[in-house]
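Observation: inputs received (chain + zinc ion).
Thought: call the complex predictor directly.
Action: predict_structure
Action Input:
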Amino acid sequence: MYTYNDLRKNVCSACRKGVEWGVIGRSSCGRNIIYFHLGPKKGKQIIIQGGIHAREWVTALLVTAQVDFLRKEKFPIGVYFLPMTNPDGCDLCQLGAEAVGEYAQFVREINGSDDFSLWKANARGVDLNCNFDARFGKGKGNVTRPAPASYIGAKKHSEAETRALVDFTLRINPCMTVSYHALGREVYYEFFQTGDKLLRDRSIATRVSEYLGYRLVHGDLGSAGGYKDYCISALGIPALTIEIIGEDKTHPLSNADLKGEENNLWIPLILTNLLASL
Ligand SMILES: [Zn+2]
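Observation:
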């Protein structure tokens, strides 16, 4: 388990330890989308986000753990950590329909059962990682009505969570972003970039995949509307999707499935050192 309330408790403890935190916006149900920040506030920044897919809430636990693990390290550039960009979905998945208030009946109808452990979308049945302005609606497997996964939304950036993340990203103007997902132990970095940008992004992704011992995946593979896709196509920056946890495990995942993923705790520091020199 790692719910929104657990994240709030981590905010309190991070606050006591002097870690800066804040809110980038609110979800459909009014939950805060929380960030932590480490390193210098001026100059280059990177953004690391997790928990955008509800059933992958273990990534929220991982990103929060990165903050605690690295809080005393010296970062050459700043890092914003957004552990749970889909807090309604993460709670729905773990706590059931009552966690999404006015949307409870709606999600029951879409889901067809009271077991939400495989749910990926937000409380409105929109898959946030298909809702960004990046070849919107052209993804393999996209669907056009509310569903537990893969629904693109009524229009691009239709969701409160998507808009919060886009507005924050444009304001911070990061030099790189990382999106944590599960599972597969893979690193994705491509979305129709070419030339020097493709070479740059491949070299960063190669370093990460080698460090983690994960498979480097080439090509866009029919992806569209994802946060990584948006960062690459709209901002022209390197953006990775890191899929943690091997395929010997299956959804629904548990806290214990993070065992063996500890190398990820160092990823923010490794990336900031790499990006500082670019
Ligand atoms: Zn995912």
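Thought: report the result.
Final Answer: Residues 53, 56, 181 surround zinc ion (CB under 6 Å). The chain has a mean pLDDT of 97.
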